[in-house]
Amino acid sequence: MSSPNIVIIMADQLAPQFTSAYGNTHVKTPHMDKLAVRGMRFDAAYCNAPLCAPSRFSFMSGQHITSIAAYDNASEFPATIPTFAHYLRLMGYRTCLSGKMHFVGPDQLHGFEERLTTDIYPADHAWTPDWEAPDERIDKWYHNMESVREAGITNTTFQYEYDEETTFYARRKIFEYAMEDINPFCMVVSLIHPHDPYLARPEHWNLYNHDEIEMPSIPATFDPHSERLRHGIQADIVKVTDDEVRNARHAYFANCSYFDENVGVVVQALEESGQIDNTIIIVTSDHGDMLGERGLWYKMNMFEHSARVPLIISGPGVEQGKCDNPCSLVDLLPTILDMANKEKPEMAMPIDGRSLWALAKGESQEGGEAIAEYCAECASHPMFMIRRGHYKYIHCDVDPPQLYDIKIDPQELNNLIADTAFKKMAQSFKKEVLSRWDSETIRKNVIATQKQRRGLHAAMEAGIRHSWDYNPPRDASNEFVRNHMDWLVAQETKRYPRHQKTKTK
Questions:
Q1: Catalytic-labelled residue, pool 102, 110, 125, 193
Q2: Can 102 be counted among the known catalytic residues?
Q3: CATH architecture of 5-372
Q4: pTM score
Q5: Bridge partners, residue 99, by sequence
């Protein structure tokens, strides 16, 4: 088998529970449905940190966030950490990113040869939390209940503008690869939807009957971290009405459909450019969204709606089916390297993930686990999650532990930690946590880097400011039709399929 092209389509804040591809009978995601039907759907896939930047750094590097100090949305992603883009370049792949990846720091490529758009979020240290003042909000932090209170219909937003640009450039690049006969390539198309604010265009809003929008079904819970989250997003002081909740969920469902629509655009470009048969497509997200379940919004916790992600793999060599082995985004790097079907280059950094390629091909494989860590806003101590088999264990030194049987209790209503029948299991999980992580040392490291980054940010804001935000190179003087070009040649090079000229006698 030759090396396939690899296209990864990534959502932001898409919970699989809110897609028809994962069995939701209300939310419409037909393009994801098609990929799931003809590929492998992973039903127990998780992010490695329920927050944008840390999750994406794990996804790119194949390493857990505490291994690379990727604690929060203002943590730098060091240029010295290999990503799957670096590996693939050494394996002969062209690598390209269109859209968001939330890289923080001066390196805004991290192995990608080309980046087609800027990022939607800042690349500096402004969003650094302060664990020594956990009750204080980050000045520029956007998460609060206004996203729920102001939810509804819009004609445009900066997020729509961003995703339109992301998909447009991705589609154009796919055709360029076909016209220039460039293969294999790896492209990441990373969109911001359905991430809040919960605002949707009329054409997507009107896909749903407002009166039929499903309301949250899991009652509010009041464990210590959930209380910290409510305080952090101001849900403890800002009350929302049922109408506002319904509006927010309506807009979110609409934007799930919008994301799915963009999946369809990318797949269609691969089909029309004749590359679909040699392209493996991966659809996933960086984390989910609570969307009012348990009285919580957004992410930043280990519950299923926040920590679980969609993961669909479709393409040559992939079996049709469903896989319930626990896995996580950190597993995608070794999976992608196996997909490439070439000798893997050696790099000094370890890989924490394990390949899912055998599972994607339908081969039976025992075991699997998902590890998640959280060291960011609304916390003061590290949080850890272990999903193994159908059990999930959540640990934080300052909070009561939680243990759930996800198979029989998918809504996590019954904490088994005090159940005598699960005493040995709970003890075993706790022992594993204590052996795997030094929580106090991690906390000291988190606080130290927070202090360092806040100081650096203050210094960078003083005097002449230099931005790390990515500016895509563009030379308009060589685009479309220009007087220094033979415009007939220029036209032909941008036409696909090529015009087949008839020979004159």
A1: 102
A2: yes
A3: 3-Layer(aba) Sandwich (3.40)
A4: 0.96
A5: 190
